[in-house]
Design goal:
This protein is α/β, with parallel strands linked by helices and 364 residues long. The chain contains 12 helices and 15 strands.
C-alpha cells in the first residue's frame, strides 16, 4: 500500500473493540487518527491517536451536533464506526454526516436490524434455505411449558451483541431444565433480551469481511486453536477453505451487505454443514490476527470510503494469540507452541504500552 496523508475519525467502540482498530491503522505511515466516543476508555492513551474526544449531550440530536463539530474540528476525511451502536447511529444520520466527510460502506437500517437480532437472522436464513441453528424463547417463569422441539443442552445468549455483554450476563450452557430454572430464579432478567439456541456438536469457525453491495472486497477465515468454553478463542489460526467461502458469499450476496462484519459459524458434525450462529456487524476482538495474515481491514475500509478500488487481497495462513493469553503462555512450557512473538497481541501492546495500564472491562 502506498503512503497517503489523510485523516480518519473513529467513532464508538467504548469497549474492547476500539484499540485493535487504532493499532491496525497505526501501522500505516502518514495516517492521522482521531477518536470520538461516548465515554472515556483506555484507548485514549494510544500513541497512535492524534486526539480523543468524548461526545457531548445525551440525545441523538445533541450527539449528532457534537459528532459533526468533531469532524469539522479534526478535518477528518473518513469516518469509521466501530461497533453496532455506532454503525446504527451513522446509518440513521448518514445524509447529514456525509456532507462533512466520507463514510466507510454501510448497509441500510432494515438489513442491519435483520442480522444483529438473532431471531430475525434465523428467520432470514430459514427463508433463504440456508443452514441455521434452532432458537427458542426464554421461559418467563420456571413452570412454563417448553416446546417439544427443545432438547438439552441449550445455549443461553443475549439477543443482541454489542461488542461485549450488553446486559451483564454472558453466554451460558444449560445441561437440563433444572439448571436453567435455577439460573433464571437467581438472575432476574427480561426474557425478551435473550434467547435459547441449540447446542451444535462440532467446532467454531469464523469469517471476517469487508463488503460493498453484496460483493466481498476482503476476507479472512479463522479457527481457534486455543479454546475457551463458550467464549471466543484467544488463539486463532488463519486458514483457507473455498467451500466454506462459497456459502459465505451466498449469504453476503443475498443480503446485499455493505460494510465490515464478523460472522460466527458452528460446523455441525451431525450434518456436515456450517451454521451461522452470530452476525456481528462491527469490528472484532481478534482483528490484529487478520493484520498478521496481511489484511488491514480498517485501512481498506478507509480506501473504499475515499473511492479507491483494489483486487481481492490474498491473506496468508498463520496464527495469532491475544495479549493476555500470550503473557500466560510465556510462563508455560514451549512444547507444542508454534507461533512467534510477532504473532501475538503482546507484540503490538509493547509498541503501544500505555493503554495496557488502563484496561477497560472486557478488553483482552
Amino acid at each position: 500500500m502506498s503512503q497517503e496523508n489523510y485523516s480518519v475519525l473513529l467513532f464508538g467502540g467504548e469497549n474492547r473493540l476500539g484499540l485493535p482498530v487504532v493499532r491496525c491503522l497505526g501501522q500505516e505511515p502518514g495516517l492521522t487518527i482521531h477518536y470520538a466516543a461516548k465515554g472515556k476508555t483506555g484507548t485514549r492513551f494510544s500513541r497512535y491517536l492524534r486526539s480523543y474526544t468524548v461526545l457531548s449531550g445525551k440525545s441523538d440530536d445533541e450527539q449528532l451536533l457534537s459528532l459533526k463539530a468533531i469532524i469539522q474540528k479534526t478535518e477528518s476525511d473518513v469516518l469509521l464506526p466501530i461497533d453496532e451502536p455506532a454503525v446504527e447511529f451513522v446509518i440513521k444520520y448518514k445524509d447529514e454526516i456525509s456532507d462533512l466527510t466520507s463514510i466507510s460502506p454501510l448497509s441500510d437500517l432494515k438489513t442491519l436490524h435483520q442480522v444483529i437480532d438473532k431471531n430475525a437472522l434465523n428467520e432470514w436464513l430459514e427463508a433463504n434455505d440456508l443452514p441455521f441453528a434452532r432458537t427458542w424463547n426464554v421461559p418467563s417463569k420456571p413452570d412454563e411449558m417448553l416446546p417439544e422441539s427443545l432438547n438439552f443442552p441449550v445455549l443461553f445468549k443475549p439477543l443482541w451483541d454489542r461488542g461485549g455483554d450488553a446486559y451483564g450476563i454472558s453466554v451460558r450452557m444449560f445441561d437440563d431444565r433444572f439448571e436453567m430454572d435455577q439460573f433464571l430464579e437467581e438472575n432476574p432478567i427480561d426474557p425478551n433480551n435473550y434467547l435459547l439456541q441449540e447446542y451444535i456438536p462440532g467446532f467454531d469457525i469464523d469469517c471476517s469481511l469487508l463488503c460493498d453491495q453484496g460483493e466481498i472486497l476482503a476476507y479472512t477465515l479463522q479457527k481457534g486453536f486455543i479454546l475457551q468454553e463458550l467464549q471466543y478463542s484467544p488463539g486463532i489460526e488463519l486458514l483457507h477453505n473455498e467451500g466454506f467461502l462459497d456459502q459465505i458469499s451466498e449469504i453476503i450476496k443475498k443480503l446485499n451487505w455493505s460494510g465490515i462484519c464478523h460472522l460466527d459459524f458452528r460446523f455441525d458434525e451431525r450434518e456436515g454443514s456450517y451454521k451461522l450462529v452470530d452476525f456481528n456487524a462491527r469490528y472484532w476482538t481478534t482483528m490484529l490476527g487478520s493484520l498478521e495474515a496481511g489484511i488491514n481491514f480498517p485501512l481498506l475500509a478507509c480506501k473504499i470510503a475515499l473511492g479507491e478500488s483494489f483486487p481481492l487481497p490474498e491473506f496468508k495462513d498463520t496464527q495469532f494469540v491475544l495479549t493476555t493469553t500470550a503473557l500466560k503462555e510465556m510462563f508455560r512450557s514451549k512444547n507444542g507452541r508454534s507461533y512467534s512473538f510477532t504473532q501475538t497481541g503482546l507484540y503490538y501492546a509493547l509498541k503501544d504500552p500505555v493503554p495496557e495500564l488502563f484496561k477497560f472491562k472486557g478488553y483482552d
